[in-house]
Specification:
By secondary structure, this protein is of the alpha/beta class. The chain is 39% helix and 14% strand. It contains 14 helices and nine strands.
């Protein structure tokens, strides 16, 4: 494992910090969660971690944490800005006893700015980046896309990436992963920064005239008949994503549709009629019928599964991490 021999301290919290710790554990790091006495922790995001109970609101609890931090490689916390400092566990406190420590801070708004200490959740953070506005149907409120985009995509994954870069930099200085640096590294991972970075493709497409701010009008937001979901006869759904012309042609062939009668793939005048025709066709059979019909083809037509079904799908179960 790439992080074998590393020790990460996780100050217990919710959302992106536990998931970041889970990723570190899956990479082979030893992850120790410092949690409140008698606190109940979620199971999945703490798989492979060890736990230490300590009340960080007391001097004794802080001493327990600092004793672990003294020899750790990294620390991750998701408190509001200033909260760790008030406990005596801020970056300066930790670096005074462990200069090599990579200190990872996970917040929604970031460590500074007028909203830094304001409460928020995933839907608030992605709403400020333009991501939430770009999702959903035209004329309707944007739907909350779970917390995968903000908390975990723009949050956990960016925190992990930045900390890995810091570990790599330190390892290049000291092959034993023990740097003599006088100042420790502080990672400021803000969800609004991570999501803004992921929105780069939208800004790129906008710059070349292939995206507009309105929902339901773009290539990846459900406006195109060839990139959206369709209901099936059993009130389930099939996902169609044949963006490339060659894949689009395969879909039409598998559905028995005459391309010349269907109209051009990107002809705006044909979109409503194409969508209506595909709605009728997919509604004529069950989801599993269509899944089997397109199985193994390059039509980019696949079933929409719930999480229980997903765990049993042959492709997911064949992956090494699932076995």
């Amino acid at each position: 494992m790439s992080l074998s021999g590393y020790h990460i301290i996780e100050l217990a919290g919710i959302g992106p910090v536990p998931y970041a710790g889970q990723i570190f554990a899956q990479m082979g790091a030893k992850v120790t969660v410092i949690k409140r006495p008698n606190a109940t922790e979620p199971l999945i995001s703490h798989h492979g971690k060890s736990f230490l109970e300590a009340d960080l609101r007391t001097p004794e609890g802080v001493d327990v944490a600092l004793a672990l931090i003294k020899n750790a490689d990294g620390l991750i916390e998701g408190m509001r800005p200033g909260a760790a400092e008030r406990l005596g566990l801020g970056p300066k406190d930790c670096h005074s006893i462990n200069p090599k420590l990579v200190y990872g801070r996970m917040t929604g708004w970031g460590q500074n700015g007028p909203w830094a200490r304001m409460a928020g959740h995933d839907i608030n953070y992605i709403g400020l980046t333009g991501a939430l506005h770009a999702m959903g149907e035209a004329g309707r409120p944007p739907p909350p896309p779970l917390n995968l985009i903000g908390d975990y995509g723009g949050g956990s994954l960016f925190l992990v990436n930045k900390m890995l870069a810091a570990f790599l930099s330190r390892a290049q200085i000291d092959p034993d992963k023990r740097s003599d640096a006088k100042h420790g590294v502080v990672i400021d991972a803000a969800i609004i920064d991570g999501v803004t970075s992921m929105m780069g493709i939208v800004h790129d497409l906008d710059a070349i005239g292939l995206w507009q701010p309105e929902r339901g009008a773009n290539i990846l937001d459900g406006a195109m008949p060839y990139y959206r979901c369709y209901a099936t006869a059993d009130n389930r759904f099939i996902a169609v994503g044949c963006i490339e012309p060659k894949f689009f042609a395969i879909m039409l062939e598998k559905l028995g549709i005459d391309p010349s009668a269907f109209g051009g793939q990107n002809d705006p005048a044909c979109r409503l009629s194409q969508r209506a025709q595909l709605e009728t066709i997919f509604a004529s059979q069950t989801r599993n019928h269509w899944a089997a019909h397109f199985d193994g083809t390059d039509a980019c037509v696949t079933p929409v599964l719930n999480y229980s079904e997903a765990a049993c799908h042959k492709q997911n179960s064949a992956r090494p991490d699932r076995q």
